[in-house]
Amino acid sequence: MDELQSALRESVEFQNPEYLTFVPIAGLLLLFGVGIFALRLRLRPPKSHGSSYPLFGHIKFWFLAVLALSILSLAAARPFWVYGGSSFKRGDVDVAVIIDASASMWVRDLGPSRLELAVREALGLYTEEILTPGDRVALFVFGTTALRQVHLSSNAERFVEQLGQIAPPEQLSGDAFPWDSDIAAAFEHVYQSLDNQDRFDSGDEDWQPVERSDRVVLLFTDGDFAADNEQISRLDQALSEFGRRGLSVYPVVIGTRTGVDVDIVLQDYVRGLDFDETLEADLEGIRTRVNPEGVAMFDQRSGGGSFVLENIGLSAAPFLRNAIDAHRAVTFQLIPSEDQQEIWQWFVILAILVVVVAMLFY
Which of 70, 273, 318, 348 has the highest CB neighbour number within 10 Å of its CB? Predict the structure, then answer.
């Protein structure tokens, strides 16, 4: 209701607002009249038999004259009505994007690699205008560990730039990052990073996380997680922390159900230069396929949904739009247009009526 009243106030504008300075003067004159009236009422002699003491008497002309002055001041300010159409405005959201950059995401079972499709769908947040000015987005990548690439910000260029740099490394020797998908570490890193930023923004050392409805987590992965008991326990704890903060997870699962051998990614590298034979032996016989069941736990615990992208012709944009819009607050507003109508004449007519009434009762 307050927002509606504020919108209505903003729809009335004044061509000569300097005349509004007479309104507080009229208010002072009104207070002066009230003081005189109170003093006369207090000093009035006791009422005798047959005497007539009207409550206001001639002072009512003073009050009506002050009222007429106020209305004429408003008329002199030349008020006009700005036509506006009522609409609903959606609030801003914070989006944490998590990209699975492990080696299983490098396979090309859909033509482009799963990682390329993940980047394409994440870029769609801006190319499809799913995110709007005022929304903030953060970027995280994970494999054996999790890294924050972009802190929560409305800087779209920074997000797009860092997202475009996500790709397999030039060499595999000595790099353990791609050879595991520690989803628990990713979720831990997300809520801890958001907490640190919120604490810094608040400037309060005693800041504590609160449940919010305007934040979502988008996960782009193939769902091919090999979690042991320790990771499952950490994942369960991380999802509990997500629940405390109101964070819902919406996974986009990328890949085919038939799958492909992981060692196919070595075809893009030179044996002995970019990787050694030990790695080739470790990957032999390991097959990766899309695993929607691997993200089912996220749907159940966080209240989100999931989308399976198993065809290059599909797009997750409608799913992502619905997921994000579900977390936008909705507010009522009036949108001004160019149409205007002067209404000062009505104030003049009202002032004249007040003066006529004052003269009739004087």
Answer: 70
Is residue 337's pLDDT more than 60? Answer: no
Q: Please state the rounded mean pLDDT for residues 65-70.
A: 76
For strands 215-221 and 94-100, give the pairing: parallel
Pairing of strands 248-254, 260-261: unpaired
Helix (H) or strand (E) holding 47: none
Q: Phi-psi region for residue 249, left (φ > 0), alpha (ψ -120 to 50) or beta?
A: beta
As given in the structure block, the two tokens for residue 315 are 């797009």
- Residue among 188, 193, 187, 118 nearest 148 (CA): 193
Query: What are the tens digits of pLDDT across the range 200-227?
Result: 999 888 889 999 999 999 999 998 887 7
* CATH domain 92-328 topology: Rossmann fold (3.40.50)
- pLDDT greater than 80 at residue 236: yes
pLDDT tens digit sequence for 140-176: 999 999 999 999 999 999 999 999 999 998 888 777 8
Alpha-carbon distance 261 to 284, whole Å?
8
Q: What are phi and psi of 139, to 5 degrees?
A: -125, 130
**Pairing of β 146-153 and β 260-261:** unpaired
Based on the number of CB atoms within 10 Å of its own CB, is 104 exposed (0-12), middle (13-18) or buried (19 or more)? buried
Q: How far is 263 from 272, CA to CA, in rounded Å?
A: 15
Domain ranges of the chain: 12-46+53-82+341-360, 92-328
Element (H, E) at 142: strand 136-142
264: left (phi over 0), alpha (psi -120 to 50) or beta: alpha
